[in-house]
Amino acid sequence: MGRKPSNVYDYFIRLEPEAGRKGMVRYQCKKCDKQYASNATRLADHLKMSCAPSFQTNQRIRKVIGLLPSVNIHLNGNSQEAEASDETKETDDSSESMAATVASLVVPVPSPDVYAAAGVETAQSLALKRSDHELLTNMLESEGELLQDVTEVLLRLAKLSTCAIADAMAEMKLQGHLVDVNLVRGYDAPLAMNICGPALTVKIMPTTGALVGSGSYDYMDTVEMGQVVVISSPARSTMAVFGELLATASKARHVAGVVTDGRVRDVHELCRMNFPAFAMGTSVHGECGATTIAEINGPVLIADCVVRHNDIIRGDINGVIVIPAERAQDIATRAEIIADQDNKIIEALNEGEPVQRSLQRFRASRNV
């Protein structure tokens, strides 16, 4: 008698990637033959809802790096031990290696507010910790399809403000700021609305005139965990391209957020579910047949910047910036240097040092 399955992937058959869709690995349930994209949370939900109601998600990997406490977890009024059972401890060597790799990428978060007393958490530091925690958690719950260097650069960029990244890109003669695309107002904790992830691009066109496409709005069913949905909207459109329904689907799939040069609606619901939305405005109207999906994962023009599939999107309360995927490592390195210099300047200014002297000391190799 074989061992009882202890990992979500034990219940599924790995399928070969579809032609022309590199990296889009799918899994087929051994019991009912349903297929899903590689997303451990989605696979686990399927098991719990239909084929294996008694299945419990393996929390062991996340405990290894301290993302989950070793205390009782209360779900629906029932207390369950967070400790994995003997069966779930049979996680394979690849999972152990993955946990060790991600743990090695965690670095101390620099103090973002020098005015705060020692030991006091500021809104900025809490936002940074939330961003890191969610990013790490989502990566651990996936099978690690992103290459290690991509995972590392995402973690590094998630710790940097968009301002530091923009300064680094400016020094490299790169423009990535999505002008006038800002966090929607209404969140209880806007500083915590951080996004950092690869782009899934959606091009929306008006249905008037010659139709360039007739795509379906079910593109959300193909989005991967950790991605940022980037939507190009028709110019001067008064219709929203994103609202509560798509946000609910995004939240269930652990999408990082949405960015659009158009409008969003159902703002109260978006804020209530803490789903980060960055847009040029809001609307009360849905698309109402006025628009159609022209292309998925093709290049789109957002606020005079070209955004390609899998370019990295970083957004915070300052705004949104697009980072070319092939330059991400260099940009992260330069932005880290800039952030470190700025922290030293702030420390010197707090000690009463003149501004000019502080800038000369720590920005000798940079223009002010």
Automatic annotation (TrEMBL):
UniProt keywords, alphabetically: Magnesium, Metal-binding, Zinc, Zinc-finger
Write out the residues that bind Mg(2+).
D266
- The yes or no answer to whether the keyword Glycosyltransferase is present is no
The record's section on SUPFAM superfamilies has: RraA-like (SSF89562)
Name what cofactor the protein needs.
Mg(2+)
Q: Which residues form the BED-type domain?
A: 3-58
Please tell me whether the keyword Magnesium is annotated for this protein: yes
Highest taxon above the source species: Eukaryota
GO molecular function terms attached to this record: 4-hydroxy-4-methyl-2-oxoglutarate aldolase activity; DNA binding; oxaloacetate decarboxylase activity; zinc ion binding
Residues annotated as binding substrate: G243, E244, L245, L246, R265
The record ties this protein, via InterPro entries, to:
RraA/RraA-like, RraA/RraA-like_sf, Znf_BED
Q: Identify the stretch(es) annotated as Disordered.
A: 78-97
**Tell me, what's a Pfam family for it?**
RraA-like
Full protein name: BED-type domain-containing protein
Organism, as annotated: Peronospora destructor
